[in-house]
Amino acid sequence: MTGVLGGTVTDGSLGEMAATMQFEPWYETDRFEQDESGLGLVHHGERDPLGSAAWEGEGRAGVVHGALVGREHIDTERLVERVLDAPHETLREMDGSFALACVDFDAERFVLATDKLGTRPCYYTLENGLAFGSSVAALLTGLDDPALDEQGVSDLLMMGNLWGERTLVDGVRALAPASVLDYENGEASIERYWKPDYESAPTDGYIDDLADVFGEAMADAATTMDGDVGVWLSGGLDSRTLAAELASHSDDFDSFRAYTYDANPRGGGNPELAADIADRLDMGFSEVEISPDRFVPILDDAIDRTDGMVGWATLLPLSATYNLPEANADVMLEGAGQGGLMGHHVRRRHVERCDSAVDSLYRTEAGVSRERVRSLMACDVDPLDSFRETVTWSDETQRKKVILDAHFANHYGRGEYASTRLAQTKTGVRAPIVHGDLIQHAARLPTEYRMGTVPLTGGYVPHGVTKPKLALTRAAGKGMAEVRYERTGVAPKRPYPVHVAGFVATTSLGRLRSATTYGGQRLPDLWYREHDGLREHLDDLLSGACDRPFLDGDEIRRLRREHLAGEANHMSGVLSGVTTLESWLRRRFD
Fold first, then answer.
1. How many helices (H) and strands (E) does the chain have?
2. Residues of the chain with pLDDT under 70
3. Opening angle at CA 502, ends 499 and 503, nearest 5
4. Nearest C-alpha neighbor of 300 from the set 1, 14, 10, 586
5. How distant, in Å, are the alpha carbons of 140, 145, 146, 160, 585 from that of 590?
6. Residues 366/350, Cβ–Cβ less than 8 Å
7. Which residue in 310, 316, 317 sits closest to 335, CA to CA?
8. CA 62, CA 536: separation in Å to the nearest integer?
9. Which of 137, 264, 417, 432 is most open to solvent, judged by the fewest CB atoms within 10 Å of its CB?
10. Mean pLDDT over all residues of the chain?
């Protein structure tokens, strides 16, 4: 994978760290070393020249893993000097998806920073001086006796990803979004350099302003790309609005092409809808195959490249990156995170009706009940402790603002974009929503514009779409409001109540009848039952997990039997976490 690495490490140690970041033949590496301090960057080189930057001068050096908005107006030398001299002021002005590291060799000082949503991870440990990297595996090379973080295991089982600053390794932490780590003379300080204001905005004019701010963010993102650019399309709204806005700037690209795959759900019509959208935007279009025969050989590699911190069921869609045509795009984009900014994730009831901020986070993030996680863990772990830590971490005092602060500081970097690291290994990627003005506008989303729920369903059945999301699609023009929205079954030009009714008719009633997704079973559940090769591989992982002292083998075996009997669907949930963990432990920990 690509990313930053370094710290108070010797030449040999820096080489060991770099060796863990699985190299593709085209990868390039920049390394800067002096005495016992080192800094490195693994990047896509000529395939994505705007996706990284590096500089070394007299006694100072810096690397950027990612693409900065406005980079054409500031050279890398000036950026590095400014970050070292005035990090908070400099970083507040920066938009784009990035992790960066700068070093003053003479002062033995490092400055590390993450973007405003933490979409490019930076992990660090202070066990033997400072070591940092975009990969946890790179840090394992310098730990004397690494131990498993059992709370991190609980996170993985309950959410399919981790939360807060945790990784699967005790003592290895994730630098929070919009944060600066300043290390000098053996001491480290960590501070936030930016956060949005969470005071709800008036509804009057909010949506019109949202369309303007979104358009500006996409225009800025377009300046960070050149060469062949691709976008993943589906029948959803996020990817089409992203594609439509970028299409307005595609004259600056060598090519602009759409790709899709048949999933979410399979057979739900997404490839046909994506083809219609691509045609209206005058884009080239390709459907990429996703199949268990293609997935099984790369399963463990995909887990390894995300440090075991994303359940493989979540990784499955982006594994399509491995199946792109050989002459694929240099940069690939997806609509990840946009829905969350438009109120799809934190619903009205999550900010108005939950008992506490911790309860709200549990209801928005957990895919598996805490009771089930407790039954699987053979050690004393409270699955809610990670939520409690992030609530304590926030410096907000009002409950709603605490909820939103914890959400913005975790959901995107640790959830939505955690799987993007898989795509980063094959192509350059961008996260256009990492734009201060857009994040700020979204943080002030009026509560009435958040996802509502259908009355008399106990909050179980959502409306399926929000008014800002529909309005943004209509504002995109280019026929985007004419193409049916896969979730609701009607075109975005139709009124909001029609979409709610459509969602209830096509989706929510099916869920109430215990259907597992929009059109039926999720692919991980279906493939495990039907594909011998995948089942054999996962059964081997489940067998190994049963022998782990911190897991309850009898409970794992019981859940497996339930799944194979068709009584429940556990593989897309908690058993995905179990098998992901076991695969990673075998490769990197045992």
1. 26, 17
2. 11, 71-73, 264-265, 327, 508-521
3. 85
4. 586
5. 12, 11, 10, 22, 6
6. no
7. 317
8. 46
9. 264
10. 93
